[in-house]
Queue: 4 jobs
Job 1
Amino acid sequence: MKNYLFILVVLFSGMSISAQETWRFINIPDYHNAEGLSTQDNAERSKRIADQSEGFIKMKQQYGGELITIPGDIVGAHWYRKKFLNKFRSNPAFADYSPSEVVLEACDRSYSGLNALLKNGGYDKLLIAVGDHEIGDNPWRKGSEVVRQIENFRTGFAKAFTKDGNGQSLFTKKIGNAEGRPIGTIYEHTSNAYQHKNVLFVTIDMFRFDDADTNLG
């Protein structure tokens, strides 16, 4: 399935924008390069962060941009599969990790690494939508390991991109009378609305898993 996740940009009507008030944001689709930052080798991970930071530094110098948007798929995220589990557990520090612990650790290492890349490049704001890879990659077949990890994938995503260090949502400001996220749903920490100057950004997690006896793709 192609990644059908959207960051919607809506211009507010009735607002006059002069040349002095215009601004730029950078959109990066299907980044995937954060996958390599999940490596359990800390020295290798640090080198990859340093190397990949150069691209963001150059982008900031050439194009500027007040924020970055990514419409999903920043990783491969096949972290629940035996090949990845065995490699990750080959490091003694992670030898006893369960599949759930490996998934959460890989989320943390990949996503915190991406945040570091942006910060190194001079970007302070990232708006990212959930792609199918951010919840393990489709299809979600009944009885499969990936469906057992969906909650962990969403937890890892929210920890890095939509919550602060205390576990509170970063999207608490209302848009008019509407909440900045769908509170009370499974998407309350993976779908958000954010207004920057004259533009409203809406990130959408459109994925669902019904039950363990249903195949979805």
Job 2
Amino acid sequence: MKPAYPAIVASLTLFFCALPPFPVVVHAAGEPAGVVKLPPPVLDGGVSLEKALSERRSVRQYQDRPLSLADLSQLLWAAQGVTGTGGKRTAPSAGALYPLNVYVVAGNVSGLPAGIYAYDPQRHELRRIAEGDARPALSAAALRQSQIKSAPAVFVISAVYERTTVKYGERGIRYVHMEAGHAAENVYLQATARKLGTVVVGAFDDDEVRKVVSMTDGEHPLYLMPVGQK
């Protein structure tokens, strides 16, 4: 966008920054969808950054055991948790515009009914957007990769490019992809520190993943990350 329109740029920036980080879902009766308050994140887990870096590996096979809600909470916080005033998060974001959304497709998480959930970083809670185990459908959308179906939970990281491109133009697309990489590496390192396994999956049908997760218009899936005990 040309700098001759500063007022328009400012107005659009305010508009997109005001958008909710995920779709607000209500039942037909007008009641809000199920909300799950997550355990607070641990800020000192006792594993050094250097140790987590040295032990980080991609893990595609997981034990047939449930993922704890505490582990799920910690991984979500690592991906996009709020860490400071002004809503600053664990992963750096160009212009602090935060284009990423994080969903959880849960199938075997202790204390969490199977379903699809959207993560709210500001409140550190999950909001259910669909009930039932969607891992088989998500696996089908990901070229039937078995780790998507067998993991207790799968993170889906998506982006709304307009939250960033409204300020940075087409260059903002690159910034969004950089940010998604930051968030995914955070999940990798946090999983390693908690003796969990994960892997980045990029081979999937975008439209099918959108359908499974019920993403909003203009939202683009970037990563799938199954997580579980290795």
Job 3
Amino acid sequence: MSGKLKGTLYVLICIALWALIPVVSKTGQTSLDNHQFLFWSSLISFLVLLAAAGLGGKFSEFRKIPVREYLGIFLLGLLGTYIYYLFLYLGYAEAVGLEVLVVQYTWPLLIVILSLFILRESLSVRKVLSVLLGFSGVLLVITRGDFSGIHVSNPRVILLVLAGAFCFALFSVLSKNVGRNALVVNSLYFLAALAASLISMLLMSDFALPAREELLPVLLNGVLVNGFSYLFWVVALQSTEASYLAPFTFITPALSALYLILFFNEPVHWSTFAGLTAVILGGLINSIKTGSFGRMAGVP
């Protein structure tokens, strides 16, 4: 399997899991606040990934990592598994969800930009077009074709969500160059998130156990949505260009809309399917090699 095909397969798995975030957030925070929900999710993600590393015989890899590298991995973990979700959950709690979702999905755009400067990846017309199509699809889905519905009602919180999106984009780009086993690295990412979320929960909230009806979404979020999805994401990043993968992630909010329709009987709107078509088209354009695209378009 080629690196690009492997990266595409894993990023599609990530998309299917990440699209569940609205579902698990909606059902998992009936009594828990964002600090508590983040703590329990981080704890489960860490334990599951640590167990997987143990079963895979990777515990010896932890001893091979020098202290200075541990610090760098922990800092990455704070960026991508703590700050991003801390600000994201804050946004959904205090700001208009429509605004939060738009700002949240600036991170794939930021990946393309950061990849140019940090990873020295090339920028092509295909990448620009695919990103523009993807973002247009996101806007169609979340505005239902009514772009006048977007306005900033809570600038402070929205700026924090944007800062979180930047942190996740930076995390994704820098994680590409972490040359350690993905299971080991992701275990450490969530260990950092667990420690930070415990501190923030104790300082800014209270310790609380999930209610019975919250157990399944908390487990699902910890094991798959925020757990193994990060493993798949890091493997995808290590397999091919980050800027190639970024436009595919625009499928996530469109798929989230479909999940909401299925699980919560949300009304179906034409813009959902128009947006889904746009993001899939953007991903397909980005996945076609320059030569193949040229031949299809009649360009020599």
Job 4
Amino acid sequence: LVIGGSRGKAGAVALAGMATLRSGAGLVTVAVPRSIQAVVAGFEPSMMTLGLGDAESDELGQESIPELREILPAMTCLALGPGMGTSPGSVRLTHWLYHRVAQPMVVDADGLNALSTWPEGLRLAYGPRILTPHPGEFQRLTGEKCADDLNKRADQAATLCRLDPTGNTILVLKGHRTLVTDGRQVSFNPTGNPGMATGGSGDVLTGTIAGLLAQGMGPFESARLGVQVHGLAGDRAAKEVGEISLIASDLLRFLPVAFQQGTVTTR
């Protein structure tokens, strides 16, 4: 289940949904405001869509909780946040999902922005959580600027993971040599290029990790492999179109090739 989207940001949640399919999930449902359901459905016929809330609402809110309660038991994992918006209702919905849903969850973008309104809530994750911030989002979550040194950055990321007493929080701190840590082990990713710093790239990463989770892979392993395959797809795309012209939908085109050649390198 991919939850997100808002008026003007239908593409973000659609990219995440399509990446989830391309990463091996057999069935993907994208839950979005009813006002943009038709737009999101038009991106890819292989995705199912669920329209939530009032037909005039621009963003999802807590009024969608009863409808989500009905479908959540059938879902293997969740991806939350792409294009979701930051209205008070969206923030409340994010906290409800984060603190009440047991399935593994990838949280990105506006989902992270919602969590930053109550950082202490990171101690109350109800199940496995994979957070995928860039340095700015990490700073909003922690109040601490990311270190330039990779080893110090890894320590900062591990400290955030250890806020969760269950040990089920994974952090994917994006940037040059994106790192993945669960607070105990750390992996630095060698793939990717500057052309991937483009709108929608993070949404594709969210979906890639969620697709691996949906197949039963562990959270740390899903994050680690997802980051590497996402970077490989970006490297193949850059060879074809160049870093300057690379856009997020190019990553979707090259995910299949990336999965065929992907291997995992760790520190």
